[in-house]
Design a protein that fits this description.
The chain is of the alpha+beta class. The chain is built from eight helices and eleven strands. The strands form three sheets. Strands 5-6-11-7-8-9-10 form a seven-stranded antiparallel sheet. A two-stranded antiparallel sheet has the order 1-2. It is globular.
Length: 232
């Protein structure tokens, strides 16, 4: 019996996504997702789903082996030498990087004094994010919900501005911060995708990008948020 559909359902719960939200995000019908739950994920889409949820393909398909890739597990593994205190058990703490919070002032990035997000140095290293090019900002809108809620904390790699289809980037658009999935269209057209708007794509030619001061700030490599309320 193919039970990959049950594992997909559990992954959606972990991410806080409803089946209908996930269907809209993947541009399929809710019936497609229900079929995957009952019949299993189609073989042709296993690699796509495994990469999307950062899990091993074998685990997703069969339930065997480790759930996460080894690189994912190493990303948050403690790397520092244990500190021993007489009479107390030794505790290992991973080395941390203080990633500064930034805000836009008159269209320019400005660091906020004494506001940082502590992130494992090993996580930045695994993602090849230079420590001096990592910043944090607040998600400015709800256009990527439920994937990225409004006011979530974003971590951005300012050194990575090359467009990789489907990846999420922070942008500056006429002095305003935006966050979208990007892809490249015909003759260098930049396509902006929002997760909460079905089939709506904004397209900007190179000339339009220059005229509207649309530039890519960097790649969004992390986001996090607290729920706004406890469940009833």
């Amino acid at each position: 019996m193919n039970r990959s559909g049950e594992r997909l359902k559990a992954l959606l719960r972990e991410c806080g996504l409803t089946p209908s939200d996930f269907a809209a995000q993947r541009r399929v019908t809710s019936q497609h997702i229900n079929n995957w739950f009952t019949r299993g994920i189609p073989i042709a889409r296993l690699d796509e789903m495994a990469e999307l949820f950062c899990v091993q393909r074998r685990w997703l398909q069969t339930g065997e082996g480790p759930k996460h890739p080894h690189s994912f597990l190493r990303m948050y593994a403690p790397q520092s030498t244990p500190v021993e205190t007489p009479g107390l058990p030794s505790i290992s703490h991973p080395p941390l990087v203080q990633v500064p919070f930034n805000e836009l002032r008159n269209g320019q990035l400005v660091a906020i004094d004494h506001h940082c997000l502590a992130m494992p140095a090993s996580a930045l290293e695994a993602l090849a994010v230079p420590e001096d090019k990592a910043i944090c900002m607040t998600m400015p809108a709800a256009n990527m919900a439920p994937w990225i809620p409004r006011d979530a904390i974003l971590a951005i790699d300012l050194s990575f501005t090359r467009v990789v289809d489907g990846e999420i980037y922070a942008l500056l658009h006429n002095g305003r911060l935006r966050v979208n999935s990007l892809s490249l269209g015909h003759r260098g057209t930049l396509c902006l995708h929002s997760h909460n708007l079905r089939e709506i794509v904004e397209r900007y030619t190179p000339l339009q990008r220059d005229a509207q001061k649309l530039e890519i700030l960097g790649w969004v490599f992390h986001w996090s948020h607290y729920r706004q309320r406890r469940p009833d």
